[in-house]
Design goal:
Layout: H1 2-8, E1 21-22, E2 25-26, H2 27-35, E3 40-41, H3 42-45, H4 49-58, E4 73-74, H5 76-90, H6 95-106, H7 110-118, H8 128-141, H9 146-155, H10 160-170, E5 175-180, E6 185-189, H11 202-208, E7 214-218, H12 219-226, H13 236-241, H14 245-255, E8 259-266, E9 271-275, H15 280-296, E10 299-306, E11 311-315, H16 316-325
Helix pairs in contact: 5-12, 14-16
Length: 326
């Protein structure tokens, strides 16, 4: 069993904990600001206040991210964790088991981070300057004690769960969290493989587990369902900061003003027509509506019609390609 989990345990893309720079700003600090910013009210989480109150008393919430100034507000990572807890509860998972899973998923372990750094080489879209920095960082980490590293990780809010949420939002990785009856934890990539050399046959892994009880929770579904909440209030800048490369490209195209209509074909067969406008307020609302559809991930293709009648079409497959090029 341990061998199986070692095979599928893949840590997702995460920026450096310290000096990785982008235009003079720390990428880690920027990601932390976005994903750990406590800006969502309980009504926006998609979980009832009663459940949140009960889970707080049971020790299931992320107390380390909360303080008196932001009580009653939750970060994006906390919101996804609340949905994770709700899913585990529906599966009938006991309180103590959830607490143990929380400790595993949010513990800032040096071993996990060192493994994650080593796994960068398996990702097809890591820019060369970043890769060179990571090689240098891995070398430097050899001279850093686990105690020193874990202190730095804690300061930067590093966690396996948070890292998975960031990877799910900023790339099109589709991770699932696999938990067996003994509480062993694994992260399965159920979408497109990282590359041919690192491809894992999920079906064969699950076949090995067919004589055991286990649950598989789709993290991508938890994230996309969060954006389905009609009570969610997000400004366009926040949407833009959590988009992957393909999604950003579509929004940037629309902002050029070349298009008069956007047609979104939804996976359930329905069609949404959105007309652009010169009114800045209405245009911002249109972009917000489209951004929400993008993050829900329930479209099959998006057609942008120019003022000359020419149609530019983006499909989910094309957006994956666009993301890899970035």
């Amino acid at each position: 069993m341990t061998q199986i989990f070692n095979q599928i345990f893949q840590l997702p893309f995460e920026e450096s904990i310290d000096t990785l720079k982008n235009n003079g700003k720390s990428i880690t600090q920027e990601l932390s600001k976005v994903f750990h910013q406590q800006r969502f009210r309980s009504k926006e989480t998609g979980v009832s206040r009663r459940d949140i109150s009960v889970w707080k008393r049971e020790g299931l919430l992320l107390q380390n991210e909360m303080n008196e100034m932001t009580w009653g507000q939750y970060s994006l990572i906390e919101c996804i964790w609340l949905r994770m807890v709700a899913k585990l509860k529906r599966f009938g998972i006991e309180k103590q088991v959830i607490i143990e899973l929380k400790e595993k998923l949010f513990a800032a372990k040096a071993k996990d981070f060192r493994t994650e750094m080593a796994n960068y080489k398996h990702y097809p879209s890591v820019p060369e300057p970043v890769m060179n920095f990571l090689k240098e960082l891995i070398t430097k980490l050899e001279n850093v004690t686990d105690e020193e590293l874990e202190k730095k990780l804690k300061e930067n809010n590093f966690s396996l769960f948070g890292s998975c949420v960031i990877a799910t939002c900023l790339s099109q990785m589709k991770y699932a969290i696999l938990i067996d009856e003994d509480g062993l934890l694994g992260i399965v990539n159920i979408g497109k493989p990282l590359n041919e050399a690192h491809e894992i046959n999920v079906a064969s892994v699950l076949k090995e587990l067919n004589d055991r009880s286990f649950i598989l929770i789709n993290l991508n579904e938890l994230c996309s369902s969060f954006f389905e909440n009609e009570r969610l209030i997000i400004d366009n800048d926040y949407y833009f900061s959590i988009m992957n490369g393909g999604e950003r490209s579509v929004i940037e195209e629309i902002r050029t003003g070349k298009y008069k209509q956007i047609t979104v074909n939804i996976s359930d067969g329905s069609v949404t027509h959105i007309k652009t406008t010169n009114n800045d307020k209405e245009n911002q609302e249109m972009i917000r509506k489209l951004s929400r559809l993008l993050k829900k991930g329930q479209y099959t293709n998006i057609e942008l019609t120019t003022k000359d009648g020419v149609i530019v079409k983006y499909t989910q497959t094309e957006m994956v390609k666009m993301n890899i090029k970035n």
